[in-house]
Amino acid sequence: MFVNFRRIRKCQCVQLMTTCLVLSVMMVCWEQLDNSVVSHVKSYSYRYLVNRFTYINKSLTIPREQARSFSNFRYLLDHPKKCVGKDVLLLLFVKTSPENIERRNAIRSTWGNETYIQNALGVTVKVVFALGAPQTRKGEPSWSKRSGIGFQEQLIHEDSRHGDLVQQDFLDSFHNLTLKLIMQFHWMHNRCAHARFLMTADDDIFVHMPNLVNYLQEMSSRGVTDFWIGRVHRGAPPIRSKDSKYFVSFEMYQWLSYPDYTAGAGYVVSSDVADKIYQATLTLNASLYIDDVFMGICANAVGVSPQEHVYFSGEGKAPYHLCIYDQMMTSHGHVEDIYDLWKAATHPQVKQTTSGLIGRLYCTAVKMSLLCKPYYFNTYPCKAAFV
């Protein structure tokens, strides 16, 4: 048998050069690789092989007197009778910042219009905006005063017109989002415990209220419990890069993985889950400022797991199309376009186009082309095309 040694040496040389190239690229990109791929491998290993989330609960459990410091803030604006005497299907908290008055007005005029919901959908949904205190005096930002009127005075004036602001006396900032989350569950427990569902959402989210109401009415008629739906993050690792606004130190959270949680852009829980989360906040350390992760920690402590709903968006914005609107629940990242989207998503043509066998087949093909792309992520998954 004739062996071509020159060809063998040539193949070995190519293999050696390829190996060196791969190793070089890995060495150059190691830091980024370690922060993403490696951290996710560690996280999934911890979640699926070790899965000692009971240690997390124990490490974050603190005396009730200490836990009270995260919720014992004075109300600056409050409406304790907003739910009294009403059969409330949904209490919807919108997380907002003091300066975002245009966003609040847009929501009041579109998907968060309580009068529209009552008259057109036949149910009571209470929409409340959750916020902290604006920064004032030392380090006062330029937006804190307009036309010589203090920003808090403007909020008081806004609330006197609409009656939908709930505000506590902690600084409204990114690092106090967990305080805002706790405020929502405590407010429901004390002011609106009979509401069948609680939703928390960002103020740049779009909620398809007709679709959501129909879905929650169905869930309510079935008497669901332990209900928590949204865009689920499973096995997510803490971000250790100090350049990220989501940076979490080992001192704040020492574990390799977060418990499962839903994206904070928008999720819904049933009233029994809301009460369990309220109870959890009475004994857990809330210094972790990533509110959706803290929600996952609370839920894990009381034995509640999130459920995926394919038409709840994460951080992404859903495609603009009639076939998407037909089943849309939430879409994230809408500010300037919210009026146009509300008009288009609730137009009668949506149901006319998507109904019947031909309409369903057409929409399946459209949604496959819109959602089933390798680079399209963080909004509806490809499987949503087949639901």
Would you tell me which CATH topology of the largest domain applies?
Spore Coat Polysaccharide Biosynthesis Protein SpsA, Chain A
Estimate the helix proportion, in percent: 40-55%
- Counted up, domains total 2
Shape summary: globular
Q: Would you identify the regions where 5 or more consecutive residues have pLDDT less than 50?
A: 27-36, 141-148
Order of helices and strands: HHHHEEHHEEEHEHEEHEEEEHHEHEHHH
- Report the span from N to C terminus: 61 Å
Rg, alpha carbons: 24 Å
Structural class: alpha/beta
CATH class of the largest domain: Alpha Beta
Provide mean pLDDT, rounded. Answer: 87
What attributes does this structure have?
transmembrane; Glyco_trans_31; Spore Coat Polysaccharide Biosynthesis Protein SpsA, Chain A; globular; alpha/beta; eight-stranded mixed beta sheet; 2 domains; two-stranded antiparallel sheet; 387 residues
Task: Please provide a written account of the structure.
The protein has helices at 5-28, 30-50, 53-60, 64-67, 101-109, 114-121, 151-162, 177-191, 209-221, 271-281, 291-301, 322-325, 338-345, 349-354, 356-371, and strands at residues 75-77, 88-95, 124-133, 145-146, 149-150, 165-171, 197-202, 205-207, 228-230, 232-233, 261-262, 266-270, 307-308, 330-332. It is α/β, with parallel strands linked by helices and 387 residues long. The protein has two domains: 66-308, Spore Coat Polysaccharide Biosynthesis Protein SpsA, Chain A (Alpha-Beta Complex); 322-386, no CATH class. The chain has an eight-stranded mixed beta sheet with strand order 1-6-3-2-7-12-9-13, with helices on both faces. The protein has a two-stranded antiparallel ribbon with strand order 4-5. A two-stranded antiparallel ribbon has the order 8-14. The longest helix has 24 residues, at 5-28. The chain is globular and about 80 Å long. The relative contact order is 0.12.
